[in-house]
Structure formats: C-alpha cells, structure tokens
Amino acid sequence: MNTTLSSIPSEKIQHHFAHLKNKMLGKYHFIYRINDGYSIKEFGGINNKNQLLFQRIDNKVQHLNLMLVDSIFPLILSDVVVEALLNEGLSFSKYINSKKHFIVNDMAFDSVYFKYKFKQFIHYLLFSNICSNEVCEGIIDYDRKFYLKNYLNELQYYSIYEQKELQNLLFEKVTLNVDKSASAISANEISICLEILVK
Question: What is the mean pLDDT of residues 159-179?
Fold first, then answer.
C-alpha cells in the first residue's frame, strides 16, 4: 500500500517539514562582566570588545549543549555575540572574513577550524535539540526536512542527505542578531540576547 502525503497527519508533516525563511534556529542569553575601568549605561556605550568579559551562558544546559560542538565553543560564540552587537547584520561568513587572528584562551586557531565549527553548529541547530533547555545527547533527527526558495524562485528541499549544501548556504545566510529588548545592563553585568535567524 502506497502512503500518500494526505494520509500523514498534518502535525507530523509540520514537525518534519520546516520553511527556513525567517526561521529562528536558536536563542541564547550571554552574560558578560563589565571590565574594570568602564561604565556602561546603554548599549550605545559599547564600542569595543575589551569592555566586556564573557562569564557564562545564562542557561546552564544550553552552555553544556554548546560544548558538544567543541569544549571552547561557548567562548568562540561569545566573541561572535559581541561582534554582532558592534556590527549589525553579521553572519558566520562575515565574522570569519572580518578576522585576522583567531585567538581563544591564548591559543591561536586558523579560519578553517572556525569555519568547520560554525558549520557543525549549524548542523546541530537544524537536526538536533542543541538549543533547547533539555540536555542534548547529540542524537540527530534524520526525519527533519527544510525548504527555501532558490534563485529561480523555486522551492528547494533539504534533508539530512543535503546537509553539506545546507550548511554552506546557511553559513552565508544566517543572521546573528542581538535582541536589545531582551537584553539588559546592570551595574556590573550585561546580558546579551543572541538570535540566530535565517533571513
């Protein structure tokens, strides 16, 4: 017996097929300490990275989940967040192209390493629960499928089998947006809300 699309419950279809246009792939709250010697009252007062020292991601489970990508990935992403605050419309690709040196915890990395890690992160955002409030065990959901219009205005479908193509596409298309309305500044700390969006 052939199974047609109409015989599958609509909630199952919605779960497995997701339109990527304007889709939020993830949301994180990064906590920074305001560096000694600086007084920051509003986000306009932040003009260089030295003003902020990364402390943690507000949600401990999300912090631990990010370590699936790499043990230092929360630190890497914390630098991306500050860049996104300083440069609107930042993508992973633009971040890589804007950097001359990649230094984390006094260790130097090359751009190939960062590019690989960002694409791996995109893969986890698409096919796992890495951004949820539940512990991510790295289990991949092979049933998820995504679609987006291509340059010919046709719907292009992506499954786990087209993951490399999708990673390359979203490496360019994903926008790293700071939601200032969900961010906050206190006397010593700043909470910055990062939204990972497909525009």
Answer: 96
Q: Where are the alpha helices (DSSP H) in 37-110?
A: 60-66, 73-86, 92-98
Helix 73-86, helix 111-127: angle, nearest 10: 90
Q: What angle do CA 159, 111, 173 make, to 5 degrees?
A: 40
* CB neighbour list of residue 142: distance below 8 Å, 6 or more residues apart: 127, 159, 160
Plot region of 23 (φ>0 → left; ψ -120 to 50 → alpha; else → beta): beta
Instruction: Answer yes or no: are the C-beta atoms of 4 and 179 closer than 8 Å.
Output: no
- 123 sits in the region (left: phi over 0; alpha: psi -120 to 50; else beta) called alpha
What's the pLDDT tens digit per position in 151-166? 899 999 999 999 999 9
In the predicted model, what is the mean pLDDT of residues 110-134? Answer: 95
Whether the Cβ atoms of residue 120 and residue 112 lie closer than 8 Å to each other: no
Indicate the DSSP class of residue 90: B
Whole-structure pTM value: 0.87
- 85 vs 92: CA distance, rounded Å: 14
DSSP 143: T
Q: How far apart are CA 4 and CA 48, in angstroms?
A: 56
